[in-house]
Design a protein that fits this description.
Blueprint lengths: L10 H37 L4 H5 L2 H16 L16 H10 L1 H4 L6 H19 L6 H24 L6
Helix pairs in contact: 1-4, 1-7, 4-6, 6-7
């Protein structure tokens, strides 16, 4: 299905385009971001303890999560991203948590610097999809690869530390 913007306007093309992006790309970003959240939570819970958030996350990111959470608290009729503050941060923020605490990840993920670089590589394509637009074939292939690789990483991390949902 081509991008609806490449043809004469037709509502059915808009619907079809949205379904295509959701079916082929969006769900992979969903999986990648949430597996990264689980890995961060799992590693830091073991390395630091259950209160890892207050000691391992920069106060600016904590404030961002608090403000974002506050938007949902003020509008309780909307769905909430999650119970833990980690669900109120973006992929770039998650990567910053990993970077700032890389010494805790190194024993479990020896190539943590490579993983941070890979996460950074999908940040912009993630934003394109989050804003309901189309990716290039190169970016689609990149997402396919990181989706497969993040599942493999979760399996490796899971062998070294229990994976727990925040």
């Amino acid at each position: 299905m081509p991008d609806f913007r490449a043809a004469t306007f037709d509502l059915s093309r808009v619907d079809a385009s949205g379904k295509e992006v959701g079916r082929n790309v969006y769900w992979k970003f969903y999986a990648v971001e949430n597996v990264v959240r689980v890995i961060i939570h799992s590693v830091l819970s073991v390395q630091i303890g259950q209160g890892w958030w207050s000691t391992a996350v920069d106060t600016k990111l904590q404030g961002k999560a608090t403000r974002f959470r506050g938007s949902y608290t003020q509008n309780p009729w909307h769905s909430s991203p999650g119970k833990h503050d980690i669900y109120y941060l973006d992929l770039v923020d998650l990567n910053e948590i990993i970077r700032a605490n890389s010494h805790f990840f190194l024993p479990i993920i020896p190539k943590i610097d490579e993983w941070m670089a890979r996460i950074e590589q999908v940040r912009l394509p993630r934003n394109v999809v989050a804003h309901m637009n189309w990716l290039t074939p190169t970016d689609r292939a990149r997402i396919d690869v990181i989706h497969q690789d993040i599942k493999a990483l979760a399996a490796i991390v899971g062998q070294k530390t229990p994976l727990t949902i925040p």
